[in-house]
Structure formats: C-alpha cells, structure tokens
Request: fold
Amino acid sequence: MLRCFSCGGNRLKDVRDIEDDDMPIRSSDSSENGSRKSSLSGKVKESSSQKGNMARSFTFRELSTATRNFKETNLIGEGGFGRVFKGHLDSGQASDAFPTSISFIVAIKQLNRDGFQGNQEFIVEVLMLSLLHHPNLVNLIGYCSSGDQRLLVYEYMRMGSLEGHLFDIEPDKEPLDWSTGIKIAFGAAQGLEYLHCKANPPVIYRDLKSANILLDENFYPKLSDFGLAKLGPVGDNTHVSTRVVGTFGYCAPEYAMSGKLTLKSDIYSFGVVLLELITGRKAIVLSRKAGEQNLVVWSRPFLKDPKNFIRLADPMLQGRFHVRTLCHAVAITAMCLQESANFRPFIGDIVVALEYLASQSNKKSSRGVPRCPPSPSPSPSPSKHSSGSFSRDRDFGSFSSI
Reply:
C-alpha cells in the first residue's frame, strides 16, 4: 500500500470541492460560466478567511502599480501558465502579518487567460498554499481574481530557481558547489515529505522539477507552483486516476502510460532532479544526439554499476566533492528512478539519507574537499560557449553503449 505513516497535519477537505480534473473552467462571457467563475472565486475567498495568516485579496490596480504596469524590465520568469514579475508593495498593502511601515519585494505571477487550465491552476494553488505551511514551501502572500485577471503574489526568492543555477550559467556567475547542491536537495525533500506525510490527506505535488525549486539569498530551497497538485490516495486505495499532466522528462513512466498517480510518482520526479544536480545536465535536451536527449535514459548504464557512478559527476564541479558522498547520492538517485514504483523508497527514507550526506558534505567542506581520482574518461576544464555561458559538455559518446 503506497502511503506514508499517518502524521498530524492540516486537513485539506476544502480542496476536494474543486479538485476535479474534468471540471470545465473556461474563460467565457456566458452567464453560466460567469456564474461558475464567481462561485469558484468565492471558494477561494471563503477558504482564505477560515484561518489566520491567509492569502490576501489584492485589486488588479494594486498589483499593476507594484509592477509598474507589468513592465518588461520587471519580468523575472515565464512558464507554461504565465509570466512572473518582480513587484514592490508599498506600506499598507501587505497583509496583517507585515507591519504597515514596511515596504517589501514580491513575485507576482500573472496567469494566461487562454484556456481553462490556468484558471483551475489558480484555484488549486490558492487553496493548497492557504492550507499548507512549511519552511520548504513558498509563501503565498495574496491573489487577485478581478474580472478575467488571475494573479498570485508570492514571497520574493532572490536567487531564482535551481534550474537557473544548474544550466546556461553566465560567465560572471559561479556554479553551485557540491555542498550547496546537497543542502538544496535535502530541503526540497523535506518539503516533499511534508506534502506526503504531514498533510492529511497526503498531497501529490505532480510537478516537481528544478524550475519549481526556488532559492532565497542563502540558497534555502522552497517548492513552488502547486497548481497541478492532487490529493493522494487514502484508505485502502493505492493510486489516484487522473489525466496526465506535468513536464516531459520528469513524469514517472507508470503515470505517463496509465494516468495512475501515486506518491511514488513524485519520488521518480525527485530522482530526476537529483540526477540534474549530480550531472549538470537537463532532463530533456532535444538538440543532443540520439541516446543522450533524455537524461534518465542516458544515465541508466551508469546507474547500474557503482564503478561508473563517478562518471556521472558534473565536470563543472572540477572534482571538488568527496567521492563517497557522490556515490551515495547517485545510489539514492538510482533507487528513486526505479521503473517499478514499488521499488522506489519513501520520501522519509530519502530525507534521512540526504540529511546524512548534507552533514558529511559540511564536514568535508570545513577541512578542504579532496579531489576525486582521475576518471576513466577525463573531462576538460569548463570552457565557454559561443553564447558566452559555461559549458558542461564532454565526450560521452564512448559511454552511451556501456
């Protein structure tokens, strides 16, 4: 039975009212759909008023002013559901949790108005983040549902996403060191453990990827974007049947093939993120040659033989890691990426393992990290692309047939 041991936590009964994959929420001028929109917006406001420290409702004018009318220079991110702007909320515009004398920076996500998926994501995210609170989950400060506008206001995460520190790194920026990478993985795992084991019923994140792990100025990680989150199985149920959504390259194979979603689906996605951290390679790169486009497929031969674990190390680390901790991290990754969901570990076990690795990485860092021995296929020093970003590429062609 795929479930965590029962833990205390917030009851998410309110989400069941709208968490229906077949719910036809669309942008329309019809009175019927307009009525549905008003009803759903009411659910958000009703849920948000049930507890203290809940998300505040902003007017569109307030958020437009905060972003200087959504000026392009304030654009800090863009995804499948909309664009994210850096905004400045003046004194008095914050929630009661903030002193009125303070002005602060926020991140404002403006959802796409085309199609129904963005509207459903908006509702689910407001409800989820109003009911779920953990240091490794991003804080939702407020939202706007004026007319056909759907905006979400989050705490501002200064260092952006984990993805931005792993790939296409600019020449003036340092790549993540090994110790920081392990700490980020540990923190992300703690956030996932809260969703799986502390929330009641458990929550399946369903969109775990490096782009959704945000970092503050101290590289403390927080999971974000909960619009695709789904309530997990309860009682004797082993899975939830749902439409297949998520990001190509991160979805568990059994979920992608059958639509059967379990907590172990998130574990597979977490394994892909670990693999990205270890290798410095994206989950999917279609520009690579056949056999190397999908990171998991390419890594399978290495994951099967501990003697090849070292070959997965990101060349931009330049050997600045302890071989044993790297091998342990690869072993954890291999377990998360088991094709059979039943063989993947529970998130609680992953948290314990990563906590140990993080403590070991700290010890090694404090007294100097030994360089790893030469790999059977030595990698060159980091060079620069013609585009001006660092390169992690090396000749893995000889490994692809191992």
Notes: The chain has a mean pLDDT of 78. Residues 178-198 form the longest helix (21 residues).
